[in-house]
Design brief:
228 residues; Uracil-DNA Glycosylase, subunit E; alpha/beta
């Protein structure tokens, strides 16, 4: 698929979500849906938790204080917001910014899955424990943050492709990083591994990029999951 085709399909995913508001939790009108945004050809896709107040008002993901930190940290590691794709598990604002419920996550999952299939990112960076749990269930973010892992991604019925491995980079949510200096330092240190990972996946010559052993992808050790 070329860029224009991807952009059109992503637009259709949002339109389908807006048409489905009557059967989706926490929304009653199309204007309450907060779409994903970014580069259809993005090599890195960020997935957060849910929209907050500013996201709800502007109908854009990560535009509040947490979003400003995300944008700033991208720039610090040599990336631009326009280069990546940004999404959330929930495309709406939960009441009082509470945690999303399992049934709410499940209701919005098909739209997120469709976006992943369209974009085919080389890396999915999860922001916080809820998006991490989609790919790495039964683990604690405090134990696996900053440790890229291969996971199985099922075949897409729409595209008729076989299942494949996808690289997940668990990161703390920027909102959590804003509440703790220690977490902020950890968030930035983990974030800084993304360019190295991308260079390794793209086969960048060693003299251009020298990834650390910790961030160098290897072949999965089993069909379910492998620590890089």
């Amino acid at each position: 698929m070329n860029t224009a085709e991807k952009a059109e399909q992503l637009k259709q995913v949002t339109q389908k979500m807006e048409q489905d508001v009557e059967k989706l939790p926490l929304v009653k009108e199309a204007k309450e849906v907060v779409p994903s945004e970014g580069n259809p050809d993005a090599q890195i896709m960020f997935i957060g938790e849910a929209a907050g107040y500013h996201e709800y008002v502007q109908r854009r993901p990560f535009v509040g204080l947490a979003g400003k930190l995300l944008t700033k940290t991208l720039e610090e590691v040599g990336l631009r917001r326009q280069e990546v794709f940004i999404a959330n598990m929930l495309r709406c604002r939960p009441p009082n910014n509470r945690d999303p419920l399992p049934e709410e996550i499940a209701a919005y999952a098909p739209y997120l899955d469709a976006e992943i299939d369209i974009i085919e990112p080389k890396i999915i960076a999860t922001l916080g424990r809820f998006s991490m749990g989609k790919f790495l269930p039964l683990v604690k973010i405090s134990q696996v943050h900053g440790q890229p892992r291969w996971v199985d991604w099922p075949a897409s019925p729409n595209r008729g492709e076989k299942g494949k491995k996808i690289l997940i980079m668990p990161l703390y949510h920027p909102a959590a990083a804003l509440r703790s200096t220690q977490l902020l330092n950890t968030f930035k240190a983990d974030f800084a591994k993304l360019p190295q990972l991308l260079n390794t996946l793209n086969g960048t010559p060693a003299h251009e990029s020298k990834p650390t052993t910790e961030s160098k992808p290897e072949e999965p050790q089993n069909q379910q999951l492998s620590l890089i």
